[in-house]
Amino acid sequence: MGVLGMRGLDVQRRGWSAGVAGVASVLAALGFALLFTGARAFAGDWSLVDRSAGRAVAAGEGAGGLPVVLAGPAGEAAAPEAGPAREVPFEIAVIADTQSMVPLEWFVRGGRRERLLVRDKLRELRPDWVLLAGDAVGRGDSGVQWERFREEFAGLPVWPALGNHDLMGDRERALAHWFAAFPQLQGRRWYALRRGPLVVLVLDSNLRWLGEGERVAQQQWLEQELDRAEADPGVRAVALVAHHPPYSLQFVGGDLEVRESFWEPARRRSKFLVFLSGHHHCHQHLEIEGRHLFVVGGGGAPLFLRPRRDDLPPGAIVHDVRAVHHILRLRVESWGLRAILLELTPAGAWRQVYSHDLPWRGRVAVLH
Asked: Residues 134, 162: contact at Cβ < 8 Å?
């Protein structure tokens, strides 16, 4: 057989393989859809309240010209510096999992419609920061998906954490797209933000994809930044942001490596108050030893919740769990944080679900 014949046969084989792969992907999506919809039939807009159990901004510049200190290992890590008292109050909006997941979106609520409704609400709220706890896009090495994300979220002051979907495919190419979408990071995969009394440490929780040297560098940096915040009298609280949650009511549970690498070092410091994550496509508000863990995976991707309780340590408090698209508002006041959950209804309207005060540690929390 000649070269052209061999090439024709190769094309036919590739076409047959692609067809099989396409059918397989649809069947897989159907299987996931059955799992997702079954879980939602169980969960629905299920809400568990159990208190008895137990424009993108440039680096160094915040929205409205207010200072932000960006610290992280792009070279030498800069130390956070205290800002003036007039920086309080300010508002942070927290989202995660805005990625496209076709063909799963054909069967499970979530997709471009919900993502754009979340985007429109963010523009209406006009927060000082938008913390995106990972998974901006469905496949990180897709230039088309990143171009769509940049167009849809243009003008919003987004500070992201790396999600697993952001690194999907060719990871080198995916990282190049990520840094192009967020030039304010200046090549940092983990970094710190400081404004007024709050320090936010944004981490890369894709630990299995980090080299040993990178894992050690991030761990040392986290310990140093936690110690720096403890020693600074102007810092009242530290918040951690990472894509994977250390604990979760989702049936797969939390990420053990994230728990050991991020949560445990932070809980040994008195100023650690909040952990913000995504990855699981639902909302969760948990409290463990006075620290608050929010899962905010409702930024537009298809919803999924099949809950379990055995991942939580004794005495953990479950404040809220629900399978909804949503935005978490964090208002930073002189006395602490006010967490407000905004839920997107299936009809496309927004409603406030709860308001929960998170005082600086040592003060009493108030539920509304």
From this structure: yes
- DSSP 3-state assignment of 255? coil
Taking the C-alpha atoms of residue 104 and residue 195, their distance in angstroms, rounded to an integer, is 39
Read off φ and ψ for residue 149, nearest 5 degrees.
Answer: -60, -45
> ω before 89 within 30° of 0 (cis)?
yes
For CA atoms 78, 210, 138, 283, the dihedral sign is negative
Count the residues in the chain: 368
Count of other CB atoms within 10 angstroms of residue 155: 10
pLDDT digit string, tens, across residues 215-254 = 999 999 999 999 999 999 999 999 999 999 999 999 889 9
Tell me the one-letter amino acid at 192.
Answer: A
For 278-329, how does the pLDDT look when each residue is reduced to its tens digit (9 = 90+)?
Answer: 999 999 999 999 999 999 999 999 998 888 877 899 999 999 999 999 999 9
Q: What is the pTM of this model?
A: 0.79
Task: Report residue 353's pLDDT band, with 50, 70 and 90 as the boundaries.
Answer: very high
Instruction: Scan for tokens 């930073």, then name that residue.
Output: 332
